[in-house]
Amino acid sequence: MPYVPLTWLAEHTDVPAATTAADLAAALVKVGLEPERIVPPAVTGPLVVGRVLSISKEEQKNGKTINYCRVDVGEHNDAPGTGKEPADVPSRGIICGAHNFAEGDHVVVALPGAVLPGPFPIASRKTYGHISDGMISSARELGLGEDHSGIIVLEELLGAERVPAPGTDALALLGLGQEVLEINVTPDRGYCFSMRGVAREYAHATGAPFTDPGLPENLPGGTVPAPTPDGFPVEVDDTAPLNGQVGCDRFVTRVVRGVDPVAASPAWMTERLVQAGMRPISLAVDVTNYVMLDLGQPLHAYDLATVSGPIVVRRAVAGERLTTLDDVERTLDAEDLLITDSPDGARGSRVLGLAGVMGGADTEVSGATTDILVEAAHFDPVSIARTARRHRLPTEAAKRFERGVDTALQAVAAQRVVDLLVEHGGGTADPAVSDLDTTAAPTPIEFDPAQAPRLVGVDYPREQVLDLLRQIGCAVTMVADGLTTADDDGADDAAGTVTVNPPTWRPDLVGPAHLVEEVARLAGYDAIPSVLPPAPAGRGLTVAQRQRRDVARTLAEQGLTQVLSYPFIGDVHDKMGLPADDVRRRTLRLVNPIADDTPALRTSLLDTLLETARRNVGRGATELALFEIGLVTRPDGMVATGGPGVDRRPGGAELAALHAAVPAQPRHVAGVLAGQRGPDGVWGAGRPSDWADAVEAARQAACTVGVALTVRSGAAAPWHPGRCAELVVRTGGGEQLVGHAGELHPKVCEALELPPRTVAFELDLDAVLAASPADPVQVAPVSTFPLAKEDVALVVDAAVLAADVLAAVREGAGELAEEVRLFDVFTGEQLGAGKKSLAFALRLRAADRTLTAEETAAVRDRIVQVAGARVGAELRS
Asked: Is 517 annotated to bind ligand?
């Protein structure tokens, strides 16, 4: 996230003196930049200028020599007689272990109550036999750099003539008391990763004048030097460009000789680097970082003595290795774009760094470097993004290159670096300049200004649309009768299409819709009215949506908890014991799975629901009742096809091919139950969940949408073969298997770490809904006549399914049956071998009369007759 110091921003645009970080955030929000946070000052509390009055060196028993100093801190001095070791003049006594200052020097003093970066609070404390009433500070202690060899001497930092009086606030003097705004930059606005870009946006938001530091005319010299034949040689040899885009289309080199290797970065530069969240290192590195933060152009400095021309930009050879500046040896990929040089005449044989990401350790600037080679290049964003992610190097340079860097900025940025090295390092600019430039101008966009009001819904005048496009740097050319006229800042803007040439720093502007977005952004999102669309009658939930909600509500009312699981699976089918030829094993594999161990899409809900149950059991849930409604993927029948272009609407054949390439994704409902179904209590022991609970949950789900399931014995993994029920829907065309329910196989429970005798069900919900009646289910009126009860016990062969007998009983009972329930199954010697008795409780009622004994007896006789004909049943005597 970029950090925006107000004083730095004010160099490029007019920022009122009273502006706070909150004011800046409010302004930038107007143009679509999101404030992340306001960073408080690095140092808080009293930090003042002090003048060293005396130094008393004291040798300690541990062999260390410390300085007891009396320091004049102006109005913050201790008065004589206060009990803090007063001297002849008001001052403060401070213990200091550094020895790089002398009496009379001005230093930076952190007084008690100050908090330095760390945080490190300062307080008065007794040490080495004295009261140390503050701390004389070094650059590192104040967060201004890594130099901890000695404390800051202001005469060396500012010059003797600029040192203020003792007691002066040092927070303002060193720029440590400023708030800094951190902003969030979206991927399409990479130019805002620079002070130049943020200043431009601030100018758009406030109307303040803006001075572009990226233009040659705004350089101290007013121009950049032209390339010379003797410039440091550079070649681009990209034989395998990504997506047809050459990895490097511009490469500028400059040379600065005779730089003082121990020259320090100026205080204002280190201050700004710290405010921007970067660590000052050395003059050469600090200058390149500073220019990058200011302009948005990443740069790199090489020790010229270690580089052999020509520099060659090429792709890596698979297996090449490079030790980067972070001292990590990396194995390179064939897609990596490299900066190489040519030692011993071997062209491009030595790798200097990962282009646009990080340099190598062999040619970095060191404490002995005097001649510096400056690189300012432009690289393909896709190539840089892939390399940065492949090597996990999200560097500041990569963040900018992968979002797109201004292709017209390289020569200006290099000149800025040269100027700063000459000014602060005492170097001399070499007249040799190299500028390999194959960049192409941004593609013009044909644009009708009337699209802005049409798409946004705000009546933008044509003149306003064109003016806003010019403000962001676009060149607008009028088009009339096939002829074009140059940008005339408003003349002849009455009508017609225009040609818009985006600026080089806005690679995201590639179509008319992007220009409309810019108009809406700069004109103000607050100008776009919030209109609540009307809700026409009859456009609520569809019938299928209401039915799915009814199913979910029914299962929840039965005590099941709805969950949502990710549809990605791994080897779960092996754990579920699916046969090798099971259709559910044919999965659709993902090209880019979120995890290597879950590369495929589920083919049944139990694939992921059982894993959810396992996770809950592992976390202590001993009583479990879960259900899920979701899509499964069945790739059978898919026909692969290519993607159509985006320049036109696909034709009928293309649409048909696309539909054929989409796998079937039916919606299922599934549930898992384990542990106690009813809890223990004062009423007695509870009961465990069993296969009947799974069957009943499935039946109730179907009954909610008016579908009666037929339950019969079946066998399917992952259920126990002897405790599995097939769930069938009877339709006009016959029967359709829509699911299974029952107890899971013991081996499945063991493999998935589920409790023994866990039960589950799964239904093809789309098939169930398709079988539901077209007309809404009508509620039958409640009869006021008394209920007649009748029991009937039928003897059938042991192989006859109870469901078939129950269906025959219901058919025989006819319309008078309000409820038919199986309440007993009996086998015994008195029935004979291979026989069983099924007892049914009948609840009979008529809507218009009280049933007579003769009528209930007739129902009983009809049941025996129908059951006998259907399943060979006999009335048990």
From this structure: yes
